[in-house]
């Protein structure tokens, strides 16, 4: 099976500045670490790198750092960091990104922003420039922000929007599962009415704190497939964010205090779980794991 991982992160705190890294994520995750997280050897893997929220002054440096090692990493597209509400500074930044041919989209991380930011005149102006460049916009939001993403799409119908992580619904854990909330289902369905919005099947393991099961997450995957249709879904690993959780049984490196740790097999476990779910629903796995992302990101 061909794999185009639509949501891969890389970072190195000794090269770039990050303010959010802590715990088991506060390490280098680059070529060596990714090699140990590859799927089976028979799988042809490529990936779209998604900005890892460096300090804003490092947005361009991050793009250059990834581009310099993209060939050996299998990275074929970059979703660059950008602030879309900076007026002239946004215009200058987006123009700078055109110098790197691997840039296929941008992400202004919204999950921690106040309500209404993406509906400001400055943000909408910046998002229109993204559309004019022919790039996608990755929307990483919390469930309560989904209505604003729908309004943004309504304001700029030509903008291709990729919803990260199904909008981060509350999924609970394997031992204490949550059912999809009425509000999340309603807002996701409303967003899906906009034909230029696509959805990443990604990030749910992180929302479960690394303690998840396919049975627990299936209702959320089913809802996404029902409202978007299989043709607007794409798989993403969210590596390495979604591979942090309780230590795997028998892990000799597990912290003695039971703290969350890196789960070496979690990336392949997520891929296998989504493939199993897709087969059970008769979903075209090649489209889900490769074709849709290739098309949406114009690769």
Question: What features would you describe in this structure?
Answer:
With 299 residues, the chain is an alpha/beta fold. 37% of the residues lie in helices and 15% in strands. Helix 1 links the parallel strand 1 (2-8) and strand 2.
- Given as residue ranges, the uncertain stretches (5+ residues, pLDDT < 50) are none
Shape: globular
Mean pLDDT: 95
Give the strand order, joined by hyphens, for the main sheet: 1-2-3-4-5-6-7-8
Kindly estimate the percentage of residues that lie in beta strands according to DSSP.
15-25%
Task: Find the structural class using helix and strand composition.
Answer: alpha/beta
Question: Helical percent range?
Answer: 25-40%
What is the string of helix and strand elements?
A: EHEHEHEHEHEHEHHEEEHH
Main sheet specs:
8 strands, parallel
């Amino acid at each position: 099976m061909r794999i185009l991982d639509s949501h891969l992160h890389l970072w190195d705190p000794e090269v770039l500045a990050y303010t959010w890294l802590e715990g088991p994520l506060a390490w280098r995750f680059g070529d060596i670490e990714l090699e140990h997280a590859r799927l089976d050897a028979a799988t042809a893997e490529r990936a779209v790198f998604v900005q890892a929220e460096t300090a804003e002054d490092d947005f361009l440096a991050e793009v250059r750092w990834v581009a310099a090692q993209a060939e050996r990493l299998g990275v074929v597209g970059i979703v660059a960091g950008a602030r879309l509400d900076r007026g002239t500074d946004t215009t200058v930044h987006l123009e700078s990104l055109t110098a790197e041919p691997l840039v296929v989209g941008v992400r202004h991380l919204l999950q921690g922003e106040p309500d209404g930011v993406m509906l400001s005149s400055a943000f909408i102006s910046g998002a229109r420039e993204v559309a004019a460049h022919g790039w996608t916009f990755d929307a990483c939001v919390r469930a309560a922000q989904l209505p604003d993403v729908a309004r943004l799409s309504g304001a700029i119908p030509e903008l291709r929007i990729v919803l990260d992580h199904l909008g981060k619904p509350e999924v609970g854990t394997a031992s204490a599962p949550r059912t999809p909330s009425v509000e999340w289902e309603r807002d996701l369905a409303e967003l899906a009415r906009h034909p230029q919005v696509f959805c990443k099947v990604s990030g749910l393991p992180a929302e479960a704190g690394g303690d998840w099961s396919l049975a627990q997450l299936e209702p959320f995957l089913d809802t996404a497939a029902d409202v978007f249709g299989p043709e607007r879904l794409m798989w993403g690993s969210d590596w390495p964010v979604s591979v942090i959780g309780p230590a795997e049984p028998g892990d000799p490196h597990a912290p003695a205090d039971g703290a969350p740790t890196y789960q070496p097999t979690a990336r392949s476990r997520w891929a296998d779980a989504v493939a199993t779910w897709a087969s059970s629903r008769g979903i075209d796995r090649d489209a889900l794991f490769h074709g849709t992302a290739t098309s949406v990101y114009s690769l």
